[in-house]
Amino acid sequence: MALQDVDPEDLARNVVLSVADKASQVGDLISGKELGDGVFEYRFTSHITGYEGWQWSVTLYHDLEGEQWTVDESSLVPGEGALMPPAWIPWKDRLLPSDFSVTDAMGTEPGDPRLEDGFGHRTDRGQATRTADGIVNPGLPSDAGDEGAETDQGGGADGQAGGAVFTDKDADRTEDGETPAEGAEGGQSAEDGQTPETSDEDLEEAVETFRLSRRHVLSAEGRAEAAKRWYEGQHGPRSLSTRTADGHTCDTCGFMIPLQGELGTMFGVCANRWSPDDGRVVSLDHGCGEHSEIEPPEEPSLWVQSKPAYDDLHIDVVKQKPREESPEVELIEELAGGEDETGAKTAQEDSSDEEGETMTVRTRSRRRSSRTGR
């Protein structure tokens, strides 16, 4: 848009008014300055709800030859004390372990500070190789000269004769290449170009024990990070189970499998199938109710006499509520009563007991009067 004979401030305000939803959202002019090469910027106060401290910005270009003004762009920019959204955090830094399922994989970035090269893969230690005897030769550190290390001159220019490294402790060597202690104990000389056999054995044992021949192993930072996470987690000393364990901690439990290395001084693995921590890394001062030294509770006797649910020794007499008679039921009972009368008369004639006859007649009369309501 090219305009002639216009006031740049009025032009910038008109641009903002055309962009804003309401004219009340545009405030007073804050500043107008030249950015260079004919580019000018004008800023106005913003009164948009939720954008406190923000400013309207309009960029104009002034063509001196054509004496024209051109609108480049308009936008909202934050000023001092503006209400800003939180800083952007990459998605990888926002993820939590609970966000992953068993089928998800994030991978490990190259140069992860939690890892370092294992023996046999380190480029900063010279030619780290395994000898024919199976002894791992880690080579020389790259900063060996800074630490005052010296190598045997008979090993060549690279100073790696047999992987031996000599420090300033060797300054007391005699002319025949032996230190006083080595001469007394029959140790090896520096001319052999090798350290004592125990050094190689110890190195090989350490590499095999801690499996340091892997391509990458945990660095000091990785071990410290894991130790902090485990110790402050639910398997550390601050868990609820530890507070209720009554002093029975994992360091004295027979089901605790200790770890090796630095982490073994603080952690172990629980191997009790009845413990809620089974198969998990626990701190040595963690505890639960399944400690190996806790005795089981006393078992109750096989038979416990209980109060019977029903009393068969007593009979409760319950008074029944009189039933309501209906004409149909009375008719049926009268018909059934006629048959009973015939049988009763036969029994009366056959009986010789006068007292029994009187009781039978009275009973029959009482039943009949109760049915007829008389």
TrEMBL record:
<dbReference type="InterPro" id="IPR021391">
    <property type="entry name" value="DUF3027"/>
</dbReference>
<feature type="region of interest" description="Disordered">
    <location>
        <begin position="103"/>
        <end position="204"/>
    </location>
</feature>
<feature type="compositionally biased region" description="Gly residues">
    <location>
        <begin position="153"/>
        <end position="162"/>
    </location>
</feature>
<feature type="compositionally biased region" description="Basic and acidic residues">
    <location>
        <begin position="111"/>
        <end position="127"/>
    </location>
</feature>
<feature type="region of interest" description="Disordered">
    <location>
        <begin position="319"/>
        <end position="374"/>
    </location>
</feature>
<protein>
    <submittedName>
        <fullName>DUF3027 domain-containing protein</fullName>
    </submittedName>
</protein>
<dbReference type="Pfam" id="PF11228">
    <property type="entry name" value="DUF3027"/>
</dbReference>
<feature type="compositionally biased region" description="Acidic residues">
    <location>
        <begin position="327"/>
        <end position="341"/>
    </location>
</feature>
<feature type="compositionally biased region" description="Basic residues">
    <location>
        <begin position="363"/>
        <end position="374"/>
    </location>
</feature>
<feature type="compositionally biased region" description="Basic and acidic residues">
    <location>
        <begin position="167"/>
        <end position="176"/>
    </location>
</feature>
